[in-house]
Amino acid sequence: MIEDLRTILIALTERLGDETASSALAYGLSLAARAPARVTVQAVSVRLVVPHAWISRFVGMVVAAENRRLRDLAQAVAERARGDAAAAGILCTAQAEHLSDDRLRASFSAQARLHDLAVIDAEPRMLTGDRGLIETLLFESGRPLIVVPPGCETFAARRILVAWDGSAQAARALHDALPFLRQAERVEVVVVTGEKDLTHAVPGVEVAPGLAHRGVAVTVTDLPARDGDVAGALRRHATEAGADMIVMGAFVHSLLREAVLGGVTQEMLRACPVPLLMAH
């Protein structure tokens, strides 16, 4: 049983041109069965909008047909979620909506604020000129988020890596992950060195006593980053250690710098071998 986890939001989207199969639904239901927790599944299709000044009757018919298809997909996902949850004995509320992109993000953020945790699929491509759904949930919901990579459909948290850089964001993620850390067989606090000056940061070794006091079996590892590649070092270490989950704080520079230079947050969201629990 995972203590203190009582409500989970599973956020699912259907978009034009996105053929990636969802893993978040199966993973979220698997997690809810272990908790146990009540689930809300919000399946939203993104409504296509074409400016009237540029639309012909034929184009309007095509757009309308595609919107109907997307709406039907969202309804089918919600129905499948109800069936899968009922078969697993999970209390579940599933709803389908058809919204514009900006309303979709506002709706998901509002729902996430009402739950202990949100679960979402990794986005197939990270947006640089606009905020993606993951970023919106991280910075506007006030709740932790688990980002599920493709093909990961069963919850596991025997071995957890905690990425620690001494920041407030890392501390928040660590705290929000406590329900999972208490249940883990092994927790490894990883401090990646060589990318930025951590001289005045709270050392990773000072995190361990507090976790141990909560009954967490914890070790601390200093991990060198090759050529300053923090995300690459974390990904490689997670694979080598057989980790089931990575916990890290979400940090974003200015939008311009993030769009030009990237960042650890963006790189981990773009490609992570295991589910990523993030908080801000």
Automatic annotation (TrEMBL):
Domain UspA: 158-279
One Pfam family here: Usp
Family the UniProt entry places it in: Belongs to the universal stress protein A family.
Protein's name in the database: Universal stress protein UspA
